[in-house]
Amino acid sequence: MNHFRQGIKNIPEICARQGVKKVIIAPGSRNAPLIFAFTAQPEMECLSITDERSAAYFALGIALQTGEPVALVCTSGTAVLNFAPAIAEAYYQNLPLLVFTADRPAEMIDQADGQTLRQTNIYANYIKASFDLPVETVVDADLMFSDRQVSQAIDTALSYPQGPVQLNVPMREPIYTALPDTHSHPKIIKTIASDVTPTRESLEELQKSWNSLEKKMVVFGVFPKNKQLNDLANQLSKEPDVVVIAENLSNIAGDDIITQPESFFSSLSTERKANFKPDLLITIGHSVICKQLKLFLREYKPEAQWQIESTMSYVDTYRNLTTIIPGLATDILTKMPFGKTTSDFSEVYRKQMQQITVRHDAFVENATLSDMSVTTHLLKMLSSDTVLHLANSTSVRWTQLYPARPDLTYVCNRGTSGIDGSLSTAAGYAYASRQPIVFLTGDLSFIYDSNGMWNNYIGDNLKIIVMNNNGGNIFRFIGDKELMEKSLDFFTTPHQVKIKSLVEAYGLNYLACDKTEELSESIEILLKVNKATVLEVFTDSDLNTENYKGYFRNIKMTPNP
Ligand SMILES: Cc1ncc(C[n+]2csc(CCOP(=O)(O)OP(=O)(O)O)c2C)c(N)n1
Question: What strands lie across the sheet with 509-513, from one edge to the other?
Answer without folding.
Answer: 409-411, 387-390, 437-442, 462-468, 533-538, 509-513
